[in-house]
Write a structure and sequence with these properties.
The chain is an alpha/beta fold. Helices cover 35% and strands 25% of the residues. The strands form 2 sheets. Strands 2-3-4-1-7-8 form a 6-stranded mixed sheet, with helices on both faces. The chain has a two-stranded antiparallel sheet with strand order 5-6. Helix 2 runs parallel beside helix 3.
């Protein structure tokens, strides 16, 4: 059996993470009991982001257990949070410990009013196995194109 793959779209609340995911698949709804094709590969899609660690882990488990591909390939939105009750590093280490993890950072908020400090987030995650992919485009169209290219490159290796 080949390696499991998780593609995590990272940014804070209201940064357009779910819009990016919807644009990747060309749809807005993702049933948990259906494989969603991306470059002909089956994916489980998690649009619920980590506002509460416990709920997010339960959602991941539910989708993985309901999915025809059993969560072999996952794409999800995630916020880089450090709270005790919502630690994104712990989420990644717990939920995606058996996955080849690619984090695609939306460096700039969609409206250009804020920016992620990638070096701090990478230190926080501290796992050399994680592949970090910063998307630096500021316009929505250019950002989506960068994400599309990054995801295509990842999916081609699955």
């Amino acid at each position: 059996m080949s390696q499991k793959t998780a593609i995590l779209i990272c940014g804070f609340s209201n940064w357009g993470k779910n819009t990016v995911i919807q644009n990747l698949f060309g749809k807005t709804r993702f049933a948990k009991t259906t494989d969603h094709k991306l470059h002909s590969k089956p994916f489980s899609v998690i649009q619920y982001e980590n506002k509460c660690e416990e709920d997010f882990l339960a959602t991941i488990s539910d989708i993985v257990n309901s999915s025809p591909n059993r969560g072999k390939n996952i794409i999800a939105a995630i916020q880089p949070t450090k709270e005790d009750s919502n630690n994104s590093s712990k989420i990644i280490q717990t939920a995606f410990k058996d996955y080849n993890v690619h984090i695609i950072y939306l460096v700039n908020k969609w409206d250009g009013t804020a920016q992620l400090i990638i070096s701090n987030i990478m230190k926080f995650y501290g796992n050399s196995k994680i592949k970090h992919i910063p998307i630096t485009a500021t316009s929505l169209i250019a950002r989506q194109k960068e994400v599309d290219n990054a995801v295509k490159s990842i999916v081609e290796k699955i």
